[in-house]
Design brief:
404 residues; 5-stranded parallel beta sheet; 13 strands
């Protein structure tokens, strides 16, 4: 079975997290969950630093692939505070070494931004080398591991088993194509490429022509792959770094704005005519957040197939290019803007990944370079207890986004 490794400097805490994960049936069926003790952690980090030095100086002897403990991890879980393990490195530092100098799969960093928070900016943390930043109280949320779900489930969370499979597919896909230009490889062509904010494209490279940056150049030169003085170990590591970092850029800097790419829930929020089910029934709307593929979304996907973002392993969920789609005359709302005048007043709750009646939701303003920044979460005061208990203890940060 695939392996989950847990790193925390408190043996009691890491044992508790292990038991929490093992209590989820889908995790227990698919993964062995192991913890990393102090000596193993020290040896593992020393070995990764050896690989880092070898990349700078080919004469240095370092372990081959498969010999480091982290190489065996399908999912690596690292707490941010590791003071008892090592007084100079944080979980973020471990995530960097693991991503750049090991063969680990997904990296989950815990507690850097709180134990149980919802990010009202929707920007996430693209600078973090973790593939996902969580609070420790969220780690055992079953909705990270399988469908269906109920209660708290931020829209920016992946489905971890699917995301793991997609990551390995991307890394394999890239190994022979590291010279490809990122934007053209991902089919970001005019007019969609022109709608990418400059600040978003600059993540790929600091030069004047981010459109021309290749995967190899991104890893080596951008500062968002390898750090400035670090060097490439081999093509295997370049492919894995690019597969992780570019996908996170797509999720947290491109898709989050819903103005260059748009996913199912936000698409039908604008064009309800694309729903296959009864538009007046909220259950029709709540098919659209699924991770089971485009056919499961309850959307008339064949009608808009030519606008699909077809690099499906690079995003957690199906998406479409918004700019050309928004003027497609075969969509009822495009052909007749008054078509949707009688649409039901449902909104997508970003903290539940489901639609709610507008009266049960609270609006906030995301911090994104996009015209679509007005979003919704559950209004706990309106629920009379129906869904609010699922959000007990969740901290919405920064709270100022509610008042803007």
């Amino acid at each position: 079975m695939k392996k989950i490794l847990i790193c925390d400097d408190d043996s009691g805490v890491r044992t508790r997290w292990k038991k929490m994960l093992q209590a989820i049936p889908s995790v227990k069926r698919a993964f062995d969950v192991e913890t990393v003790g102090s000596e193993d952690f020290k040896d593992t980090l020393t070995d990764l630093e050896g690989r880092r030095r070898k990349a700078r100086n080919k004469k240095v002897i370092a372990s081959p692939w498969g010999k480091n403990l982290f190489d065996s991890a399908a999912i690596l879980i690292v707490d941010y505070d590791l003071l008892k393990f090592n007084d100079y490195i944080t979980g973020e530092g471990v995530a960097y070494l693991a991503r750049c100098y090991s063969r680990c799969g997904l990296i989950i960093a815990l507690n850097q931004f709180g134990e149980n928070t919802f990010d009202l900016t929707l920007r996430g943390n693209p600078d973090s080398f973790a593939d996902l930043n969580l609070g420790s109280r969220q780690l055992s949320n079953p909705s990270l591991w399988h469908e269906p779900w109920k209660g708290f489930r931020p829209s920016y969370w992946p489905m971890l088993p699917t995301a793991l499979k997609a990551f390995e597919s991307r890394a394999k896909e890239l190994k022979g194509g590291l010279g490809n230009k990122i934007l053209s490889y991902l089919r970001f062509l005019p007019p969609s490429s022109e709608t990418l904010p400059r600040s978003t494209k600059e993540f790929l490279g600091s030069g004047d022509k981010p459109d021309d940056v290749s995967f190899r150049q991104f890893v080596h030169d951008s500062g968002n792959g390898l750090r400035r003085k670090d060097e490439i170990l081999d093509d295997e590591s370049v492919a894995r770094i690019a597969a992780a970092r570019v996908s996170k850029w797509l999720e947290r800097m491109v898709l989050s704005g819903q103005d260059v790419l748009v996913d199912g829930p936000h698409l039908v929020s604008r064009f309800p005519s694309l729903l296959t089910g009864n538009v007046s029934t909220i259950s029709s709307w709540n098919t659209t957040p699924s991770f089971q593929g485009v056919r499961s979304l309850g959307i008339k996907y064949s009608r808009i197939a030519k606008f699909r973002f077809d690099k499906q392993d690079w995003l957690f969920r199906p998406a479409w290019f918004w700019k050309p789609l928004s003027s497609f005359a075969e969509i009822a709302e495009v052909a007749d803007p008054w078509w949707s005048a009688e649409r039901p007043d449902f909104v997508f709750a970003e903290d539940l990944s489901r639609f709610l009646p507008r009266a049960e939701a609270r609006e906030f303003v995301a911090e994104l370079p996009s015209p679509f920044v007005r979003r919704f979460v559950l209004d706990k005061e309106s629920q009379k207890g129906r869904l609010a208990p699922y959000l007990k203890g969740v901290e919405y940060v920064p709270a100022v986004r509610f008042s803007m």
